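Quarterly update from the structural biology core.
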Amino acid sequence: MTDNDETQRKKGIGLVVDEKIKRKWKSFAKNHNLTLTKFIKKAVNFYMENGPEATFSTGFNKFFHTFKESLTNIQGFVQLILENEKDEIKPSVQSKIKEIQNQSEFIEDIINQIIFNKKPTDSKYDILIIEDDRYTLNFLTEFFERKGYKILGVLTGKKGLEELERNNPKIILLDILLPDINGYEVCKKIKSDEKYKNIPLYYITAVPEPVVSQKIEETGANGYFLKPFKFHEFNVLFDHL
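Predicted structure, tokenized:
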């Protein structure tokens, strides 16, 4: 092949680009020990071989892999702590650890929806307990978990309503005297919503029985359990589980 043939075979392609873009390209090429021409050739070839979404998917896959590994570690350590150190942890600390577990599972659900277009599971837990007293929340959680049910406990009415937007439990146990929203109002919000109105909801409260019983029809609750509890009364709940 003569020099003339080689010249004919390699014909240049003109590119008209903004001066700012040209400077960025040159800077990138220099930092990677490339000439501007070689950099453009490599970029074009990579794009042709891997498709328009290659750059995004490659970077995102690395991010997703790292994120999932971290999330796996969090869930794994939380589970080990709850299983192996449960008797040595204060009930108030157990509640916080379980909240970490619930939030990490929620994050995982959101990621799966975004990446894989997966719908969240209908019920990540069986019973939602909305109770601001940590000790009451902990022994109710312990009672139902020993029966084989999964529990999610929250300390405020607002948090309870937020949780309903993520997953629908099979039963809701709701304290009346909460630090933010009155339990009666929480119940009304739930029972007036088409998505949640059929979820059985029971008050758990120290409010005198005559007062609570008057509110049942008005708020739409399914019943109530008075503190201190008589555990055999909870048997009515098992028909819903």
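Strands lie at 127-130, 151-154, 171-174, 201-205, 223-226.
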